[in-house]
Structures are given as C-alpha cells and as structure tokens.
Automatic annotation (TrEMBL):
Protein name: Calcineurin B homologous protein 3
Chief place where the protein resides: other
Compositional bias ranges of the Basic and acidic residues kind: 7-16
Gene Ontology CC annotations of this record: cytoplasm; lamellipodium; nucleus; ruffle membrane
GO molecular function terms noted in the UniProt entry: calcium ion binding; protein kinase inhibitor activity
Gene Ontology biological process: cell differentiation
Assigned keywords, A-Z: Calcium, Cell membrane, Cell projection, Cytoplasm, Differentiation, Lipoprotein, Membrane, Metal-binding, Myristate, Nucleus, Protein kinase inhibitor
Limits of the EF-hand domain: 83-118
UniProt-annotated stretches for the region Disordered: 1-20
Amino acid sequence: MGAAHSASEEVRELEGKTGFSSDQIEQLHRRFKQLSGDQPTIRNLRKGPSGLADEINFEDFLTIMSYFRPIDTTMDEEQVELSRKEKLRFLFHMYDSDSDGRITLEEYRNVVEELLSGNPHIEKESARSIADGAMMEAASVCMGQMEPDQVYEGITFEDFLKIWQGIDIETKMHVRFLNMETMALCH
C-alpha cells in the first residue's frame, strides 16, 4: 500500500509540475521506457558543463515534453501567448548552446549540420550554406538593411520572437496523444 500511495502521490506531483493528466503521464512513461530501452535514463546528445553527456531521467523527460503540451481550449489569449513564448524560449535554448542569450552563426551552423547530418545527399558545405543564408535572412528581419561594415552579432530572444511572429507554432509544436481506439488501428 505504501508504494502505491507513494506512486500516486508522485504522479499528482508530476501532474502539477507538467500540466499532463495521469493518463498522459502513463503514455509518456511507456514511450520513455521504449526510448531508454527500459533503462532509468536516456543519454542526452548535448554535452553538459563538465563535457560529459547528461543523462535524462523520466521527470526531466516529462519536463521537456511539457513544453509541447497541446493548447488547452480553456486558455485565454494571455495564457496562449505565455505558452507560445515558453515553447519559443525552449526552442531558442536548443540553438543557444553556450547559453549566452544569443544564437551565433557558429551555433546555428552546428544545429543545421546536426539536423541534416542524417541526409546522405546533403554535404557539410551545403548545410553550412543553408545556415548562412538563414542567418542573413534573420539579420535582415531583425535589423533591416545593414551597412557593409555592420556586423550581426547573432539572434537574441527578442529577435527570435520577431522571426517566429505569425508562424502558428501553437498547433504545430505539440505532443499528440492517441486514444486506445486510434492506437488499435495502427497495429
């Protein structure tokens, strides 16, 4: 009884921390177990401050996934905007690898190269050109016409918000939970 009480208390704590329902937490736990191979942690691809890859436990996984929670239909405009900013801040930090509050060309190149590395048809130089072009476009959106001697230091979070303005991330950047009937059709 003590273990069951402790587990349900832990689930309630996770519900409060992440906004997921107990059913959603259960579904995400099953997915976590699949991804981790039934291990208590998943290896993070980004290196931590010590230079070693961080390990992500289930609570960390849930916290990360909570950024991708679907928009609640009861949310008012202010709450929707706050959710949007949280998602964009999370995305911004994925690019800002040194956490200095600015995405530099080098950081952006690294992310683009990593994302495209699985495609055998795109060489590293092509990925670099894609990143360079996107960064030039970001500079023009954020700074307008630049002078020839003007240097763009990188994308701040405010710039990042400008770039993503008008793009519907609320419905595109979220976890979709399938119900059991839908899942049965997939098998």
